[in-house]
Amino acid sequence: MKRRLPLIFKAAAALCSLLLIAANFTYAAPSSSDRHSYLVNLKPGKSVNALNAPGIQLKKHWDDLGAANIVADPDTIQKLKNNPDIESIEEDRPVHATALGQTYTDGELTWGLQAVHAEQAWSQNATGSHIRVCVLDSGIDAGHPEFYRNGTSIIKASQNFVDDGHPDAADGFGHGTHVSGTIAGQTSASGSRIGVAPGVDLYVARVLGDDGNGLTSGVIAGLNWCQENKANIANLSLGSDEPSHTEQKAFDRANMNGMLIIAASGNDSLNHVGYPAGYKSVVAVGAVDSSLNLASFSDYGKDQELVGPGVGTLSSVPRGTGLHASAVKDGDSTSYHSNPLEFSGTGSVSGPLVDCGIADSAATCGGKPASGAWIAVIDRGTNAFSEKVQNAMSQGASAAVIVNNDTANPDDPGNFTLGAAGSWIPAVSLSYNQGTALRSGGLGTGKVEVTPWDYSYYEGTSMATPHVTGVAALAWSANPGLTNDQIRKVIESTAVDLGAPRRDNMFGYGLVQADAAVQMARSMH
Question: DSSP assignment, residue 525?
Fold first, then answer.
């Protein structure tokens, strides 16, 4: 499915915690549709009492940062700018998840785990044990079997930082559960091991809502909570195009206090790394595909530090919300790897395979049977996928197979969407090569099946980031006495150089390697 999740990019350690005081009192704040959330930075030594003025609602303040989150209208903000105790005021900018869609792969280990040499690190008795990883994302499906180790949850604490009425950190979007599974998945229930560092303990800060969006103030509050829980590593598969002075102070302070912070570079194919990845205190992660090329969507630039597997990433999603697809042709031993279209219907359909061309009208499936179930085989073309499938349905199709026309990537089944939920038939996509094989010797009969699943395949720098987080956790567990700065150097210096010699703007230092990182960490004193 072409599931383009909302994007920011066009969605710790604990020696010292930042004090977060969540205050919900109002200073004569008028009701106004023009009121917005802002981040205010106070001048050194100045008190939050400087914000005690009509029209200002104080939501949160962080004493260690000398900053606060307020709600006010633009006129009040303009007046506040003249306050001599105020250093700066900025909008509480939105942040979003950074994933794109899904692709299909198979194996005992995901290709991502193979690429970062996770299994070789496990064989060295490095699993991430005793390392605390804090995932700032859309929450988590706490009941998913991937998050139970020997019958006990690996989620040690969770909290919601989105002002949307959620009583807990339950994931209504799927992104956070997917990211967490890549870091710490425990089982092979999907058919593949998915977790890079299965020995870690998870701490979950829900800073993105059920639409994949959040605010900078929630990220800061979540980051402070991670520090209060003595997290070693923070994973942020989210971001924004623009920096925030207040946010940068928070990340700089967390890094100074011993936390290793790892964030997604972004998915706009731009020579520009988003934020927080772009701050010097944060490790910026781009994405590579299974050929170890920079993913077509991945941002890059001078701040790119490392890359991780970010295409066709299999991981957990809230139970029952994923889709698993299969397509077979009768008399052919091949099971064609296929992707379900986003919003596809579910079910199993067997019957004649009927060529419907590009299905650009309600009269393109000329060879359809007079009665009974049948499967429309549709070429990718200029019309929308929803139109193709709707036209096939109007002619009586019980299922649909879309054949990708991408000859530059002939084994890619594509990531397509039907646009919106509806009464759709089961609909899957095949690669160009698979479509050619399907048609070989005539279409005949076949079977298409789409079933609910507890897993899904996403792509994005969001998916690359937890691979790097997992490798860092493996290395740190091999030598817990190292500092965050030392672990950062370890994963940099042991990465496979994929681009120009040494660090470059596309791949940074290269693709992280768990076994080499573990060996180096153990050799250090």
Answer: -
Regions of the chain short of the pLDDT cut 70: 1-33, 98-107, 333-334
Within 10 angstroms of residue 270's Cβ, the number of other Cβ atoms is: 17
Write down all domains in the chain, each with its CATH number in brackets: 20-93 (3.30.70.80), 96-316+459-523 (3.40.50.200), 322-453 (3.50.30.30)
CA angle centred on 125, ends 121 and 126, rounded to 5°: 55
| Cα separations in angstroms, 349 against 364, 372, 444 | 20, 11, 14
Q: What is the pLDDT of residues 462-477, one digit of tens each?
A: 999 999 999 999 999 9
pTM given for the model: 0.83
Cα separation, 251 vs 337, whole angstroms: 42
Angle between helix axes 216-228 and 245-256 (nearest 10 degrees) is: 10
Looking up tokens 């928070």 gives 250
Tens of pLDDT, residue by residue over 22-53, are: 222 233 333 445 888 888 888 888 888 888 88
What ranges make up the beta strands (E) of 227-367?
233-236, 238-239, 260-264, 283-288, 306-309, 313-316, 322-329, 335-336, 339-340, 347-355
Q: How far apart are CA 388 and CA 365, in angstroms?
A: 11
Q: Which two structure tokens, joined as six digits, stand for 360?
A: 């650009």
Q: How far apart are CA 125 and CA 129, in angstroms?
A: 10
